[in-house]
Amino acid sequence: MRRRSAVAALALLIGAKPGMPAAMTEHETLELPSGRLALMREGRGPLIVLLPSLGRGQEDFDDLAPRIAAAGFSVLRPEPRGIGGSAPLRPGATLHDMAADVAAAIEAEGAGPAIVAGHAAGNWVARVLSHDRPDLVRAVALLAAVTGTEVDPEIRRSITASFTLSLSDEERLSHLRRAYFAPGNDATVWLPGWHPEVSMAQRAAAAATADKAWLRAAERHPLLYVAAAEDAIAAPPSLAELQASLGPNVTRVVVEGAGHALVPEQPAAVAEALVAFARSLP
User: Fold this and answer.
1) Measured distance CA(40)–CA(34) in Å, rounded
2) What are the beta bridge partners of residue 78?
């Protein structure tokens, strides 16, 4: 069952080039056996699905999505469970359950197969979806995704501190700058938008996913890896490293002036990479 809001909100292109058209954001709720799932939609055209990072919501794509829509694509944004109008993840859920939500959203659109783009930890769900429902996936895009490299313990401490909302804004900002943002970029945009309980539920779902076949499942589809040049969490891998871990069908783009946050730092460059990749597909 699907419910569409009576009013569509106007999504303005923050920082967009003069003359770039705005896109209307339509809001909808799907009633699924796993609970309600809130969706946002912009644009018309071939479908691109955006999946945010660990414990963060679709607001991270508020600048990116209208840029992609303005290029002639339909953008679908399922709100992670536990955020906004989406019901929380149920106990015992796995990454397969999270991917099933995305599959249900694509099927409700009737517009697949889709390009599925996962930012950071969102890449887990994108890759599981490509494994479980290859019929719904046209291609996969990984944005600043960790592909198996070790993370420095100090950076891990800053990641944890980012979710510790009891810390002062000043202390959290220092951790955000260290872990997520390139020098000179405005880390205050990520002071809000953290959902510790959602993060814990998503981590639990990842830990409960015992099978590993999905780790290389994306190689059956064209794959784009968008790296952030100054990523302290996932240093840009070489093309050879990506081919070894993700398969031979990888396109690599490195975005300068960005850290692991990537999307709020360089939305125009990320949009350009996604649109160019989408247009290159058969």
Assistant:
1) 19
2) 39
Tokens of 170: 């000043």
Res 217 pLDDT > 90: no
- The H or E element containing residue 29 is strand 23-32
The pairing of beta strand 35-42 with beta strand 47-51: unpaired
Q: Selecting from 3.10.20.30, 1.10.150.120, 3.40.50.1820, 1.10.287.370, what CATH number does the domain 21-280 have?
A: 3.40.50.1820
DSSP 85: T
Query: In whole angstroms, what is the distance from residue 125 CA to residue 127 CA?
Result: 5
Structure tokens, 217: 């499942």
Q: Which residues are within 8 A (CB) of 120 and not within 5 positions of it... i.e. 6 or more apart? A: 53, 54, 143, 144, 145, 146, 233, 234, 260, 262
Which residues make Cβ contacts (< 8 Å) with residue 98, sequence separation at least 6? 81, 89, 124, 125, 128, 202, 205
pLDDT in tens, 67-122: 999 999 999 999 999 999 999 999 999 999 999 999 999 999 888 799 999 999 99
Please, which residues have CB within 8 angstroms of residue 115's CB and are 6 or more apart in sequence? 46, 47, 48, 49, 137, 138, 139, 140, 141, 274, 277, 278, 281
Residue 113, preceding peptide bond in cis (omega within 30° of 0): yes
Q: In terms of Cα–Cα distance, which of 76, 46, 227, 214 is closest to 138?
A: 46
